[in-house]
Amino acid sequence: MTPIAHSPHAHAPISISKVMTTVMLALTPATLLGFWLYGWPAINLWVICILAAILGEAFVLRLQQRAIKPALMDGSGILTAWLLALSLPPFSPWWIAVLGSLFAVIIGKQVFGGLGQNVFNPAMAARVMLLISFPLEMTTWVAPALHPGFVESLHLTFGSQSLDGMASASLLGHAKTEFTRGIGLDQSLTGYYAPLDMLWGSRAGSAGETAALLLLAGGVFLIWRRIITWHIPVAMLLGVALPALLFSLIDPNHYAGPLVHLLSGGVILGAFFIATDPVTSPNTALGQFIFGLGCGLLTWIIRTWGGYPEGVAFAVLLMNTATPLIDQYIKPRIYGRDRRGAALPAKKGV
Fold this sequence. Notes:
By secondary structure, this protein is mainly alpha-helical. The protein has two domains: 14-168, no CATH class; 171-203 and 228-329, no CATH class. It contains 17 helices and no strands. The chain starts with 15 loop residues before the first helix and ends in a 21-residue tail after the last helix.
């Protein structure tokens, strides 16, 4: 019998599909909470994103005359669409979900060669494209409806109330508006924000912004399962919290504190589920820490002085461009050589 390949053979205990499935499992609690809070609009948006991603990727693979089933079964396209759905306003039009998912899997992924070849995070590339192209649809928020039962929540958000009655600004949008109006943040946020609100999802935002506690639990689960390491998440959270703390101590009337930045927007989702993408982040532990620190710092800078209230997607894409440079200057030590690349002396008796 002819062997498939020459030995030795390496057997990995985990596959790409298992990694993607584990990440989706970690996202499930926060996603279900989003369904509870926003009802059918959030469910429909999630389903449309995933279906559009599957069909779009299958179409491109067919054009390239590549096998469709293996590429779809790895789960990468579904996870990309899932993350995009969590980053969109729950009441977005259906065509926003379709355009975003198609852009993510075709332009953000397949144009670069498919899984493992893309330079930018596909979900964040799609979100930035949508935000620039359709700013009204991407910045229209609806306050979540908190009700005692899931059925009641679905009934209310699906059609029993007009959207005008539930319209609400996100916390970051409110803070930036009040800042431009010259109103002190400590005064404008009084009665509008409490730190526990964002932990339990009682503030307006996307499904990936209103469930900080569940997203944090999912991120810790991924670290425990060794799907990701702690370097990027911890560094990104520090990159946001440290400048926020420093500037809020200097002038609390103009700069929001670290809790506001950490518990609002997509920082938790970005730190644990987006910036940790192994394809678009550095390879070494030190490189990952620098990458995460840059993501956090850029997020805070864009939020504070940029034209958009949220900066996670822009920050991740900007640091994606720096990943090759980080990998060029921060490399792992080659086995049998020192950090300068010189061969280590052989030990006696070996």
